[in-house]
Design brief:
Helix content: 25-40%
Strand order of the largest sheet: 1-3-2
Number of strands: 3
Number of helices: 3
Radius of gyration: 19 Å
Structural class: alpha+beta
Shape: globular
Largest sheet: 3 strands, antiparallel
Low-confidence stretches: none
Length: about 90
């Protein structure tokens, strides 16, 4: 191979059926604040504010820290959403 030439590397991708509402939740274990906010339909800043230690209205699902950055467990977020949906009246 000549010096400076570029090799084309192809990535193999798996096709999986996405969960409703978010195309990649079934592949993830942890979500960033941005991803969690999108799933919850909150702004990123609102989620940050509600996860502070002294928040006026704390969010019931607290993030874990990975490398100093907050991450939310997908199962915790989905459980929270399910608990909110179970409180609604279904006719």
């Amino acid at each position: 191979m000549a010096r400076g030439s570029a090799r084309k590397i192809e990535k193999k991708t798996r096709v999986r059926k996405p969960l409703p509402g978010h195309p990649s939740l079934d592949e993830k274990v942890l979500l960033t604040v941005e991803e969690a906010a999108a799933v919850l339909r909150l702004s990123r800043q609102t989620l940050y504010n509600r996860c502070r230690k002294n928040a006026e209205h704390p969010f019931p699902v607290m993030p874990i820290r990975v490398g100093g950055r907050p991450r939310f467990r997908v199962k915790d977020i989905l459980s929270y959403i399910e608990s909110q949906n179970s409180g609604e009246d279904h006719e």
